[in-house]
Amino acid sequence: MKVVVDMNKCQDHGQCVFAAPEVFQLDEGAHLVFVGEPDDSLREQVEDAADVCPLQAIAIED
Amino acid sequence: MPGRIVIAGASLGGLRAAEHLRAAGWKGRITVVGDEPHMPYNRPPLSKEALAGKTSFESLAFRPRAAAADVEWRLGTAVTRARPAGRLVELEGGERLPFDGLVVATGTRPRRLRCEGPVVGRYTVRTLSDAEELSAALTRPGVRVVVVGAGFIGCEVAATAIGLGVTEVTVVDPEPLPMLRPLGELLARALRERHEARGVRFALGQGVAAYSGEDRVTGVVLTGGAVLPADVVVEAVGTVSNTEWLEGNGLDLSDGVLCDSALRVGGLPYVVAVGDVARFPNARYDDVPRRVEHWSIPGDTARHAARTLVAALTGAAPVPAPFAPLPSFWSDQYEYRVQSFGAPVLGTADARVLDGDPAGDVLVGYHSGGRLVGVVALGGPSAAAAAARHRAELLRQPALTAQPGEET
Ligand SMILES: Cc1cc2nc3c(=O)[nH]c(=O)nc-3n(C[C@H](O)[C@H](O)[C@H](O)COP(=O)(O)OP(=O)(O)OC[C@H]3O[C@@H](n4cnc5c(N)ncnc54)[C@H](O)[C@@H]3O)c2cc1C
Ligand code: SF4
């Protein structure tokens, strides 16, 4: 599974971090870092993360 | 055996309901009927980045999940009537759609002020076209703006107008401080100061008596007698639920549509409600049903309601626990973000600074009966991250109705 975050849209809300902590994290400076090609077993978590992003910045590109 | 589920309302709640019905195993038809001409789009930017021209209106559409690709969308069509007992809805134009299950997702619309005076020059912000019209009005040179209503949307519009270079922005509200009811005095004061530092003026403790002007608004007459000159008036005075189509069925529609703790409507196992229009008890706090107009709620309600509905229609195992979401909302004003987790509104009488100070980045905790019920951060990204660190603690708190020491 391939995850893409539109960094022009992302405003570091961190909602994705609660939904899929294994894929999305906020670094020391509270900026988003994420795993670009997470394991397929995490798909449901990542779909939830994409849902809850207020800026709708997360896309799943199989 | 699978039949059809009709979803009334094609916005965030309707979209998430369709997606979660598929996730919950519904194999039958799903038809979403919505009166707006667009596929579901994201509303929060309408008072923020999109109104400011920083994000295009076209980019606001949601990307539906792949599993919802076969959902039928009937857009630009209102549901005019429902007969839940006969499992039928009627559409604009007279067509009747029979259903096995119904999802109420018709949301809210802006409340309008009933005052004397012209209507041209008065704006609201709910839909794409509302925001496009307001954006055009705010970018006319030398425009004078009065925002009626100092809630989140009113204050966001004021901040966006300042960002667009408008020099005269006044916010009117009968309350003594902006955003007072949801946030309490401490943060309301801090926010007022930030707005004033950017040049926003406030006319608080008074309402609007009338609008002046001939064929378009030229001023706002306050209940105190003063007249504020205005070319653009934005009314952000709360919402009215879209439930007229459900009338005549003996449902409690006194404030949205009343739901039980599984999000069922009127005791019917095959009708559920989601999003802004749903008035539901949150088992995390108490048994008082409330509507919660936060962006996080359509998703949370849709997940729970979809499982309730699919269980009723297919005989699958029902959701064991009552609905108990942890609400969260944010608001962006200038470079500051307000980030909330939990239900601060239940603890405004006992609000304490947990970290920082109100002049800079600050984190406030809200308590009821000595228990933490909500946290709100005001400031930059690290303030919001500090609020997020309290989220786990909020999730661990026993229900407000539980006796001390009782586990939930
Ligand atoms: C300008 C603005 C800014 C916001 N900012 C924030 C924010 O910063 N943070 C936050 O947490 N929340 C924010 N919100 C709130 C959030 O957007 C809402 O909670 C969310 O949109 C609710 O979704 P919904 O699907 O329940 O209702 P709605 O989005 O209201 O959707 C209901 C849909 O049903 C349609 N409809 C109504 N009646 C009928 C009918 N009879 N037949 C067919 N269709 C019908 C409506 O036209 C609409 O398309 C904001 C809202 C607005 C308007
Ligand atoms: S939820 Fe969205 S905006 Fe927030 S950090 Fe994640 S991707 Fe960025």
TrEMBL record, chain A:
Protein's organism: Wenjunlia tyrosinilytica
Keywords associated with the record: 3Fe-4S, Electron transport, Iron, Iron-sulfur, Metal-binding, Transport
Known role: Ferredoxins are iron-sulfur proteins that transfer electrons in a wide variety of metabolic reactions.
Keyword Ribosomal protein belongs to the record: no
Gene Ontology molecular functions: 3 iron, 4 sulfur cluster binding; electron transfer activity; iron ion binding
PANTHER family referenced in this protein's UniProt entry, alphabetically: FERREDOXIN
Cofactor(s) the protein needs: [3Fe-4S] cluster
Any one Pfam family match given in the protein's UniProt record, by short name: Fer4_13
Protein name as catalogued: Ferredoxin
From TrEMBL, chain B:
Species: Wenjunlia tyrosinilytica
PANTHER family xrefs: APOPTOSIS-INDUCING FACTOR 1 (PTHR43557), RIESKE DOMAIN-CONTAINING PROTEIN-RELATED (PTHR43557:SF2)
InterPro entries in alphabetical order: FAD-oxidoreductase/Apoptosis, FAD/NAD-bd_sf, FAD/NAD-binding_dom, FAD/NAD-linked_Rdtase_dimer_sf, Reductase_C
Domain of life: Bacteria
GO molecular function, one term: oxidoreductase activity, acting on NAD(P)H
Name of the protein in its database record: Ferredoxin reductase
Upper classification of the organism: Bacteria, Bacillati, Actinomycetota, Actinomycetes, Kitasatosporales
Keyword ATP-binding: no
Xref: Gene3D superfamilies: 3.30.390.30, FAD/NAD(P)-binding domain
Key words, A-Z: FAD, Flavoprotein, Oxidoreductase
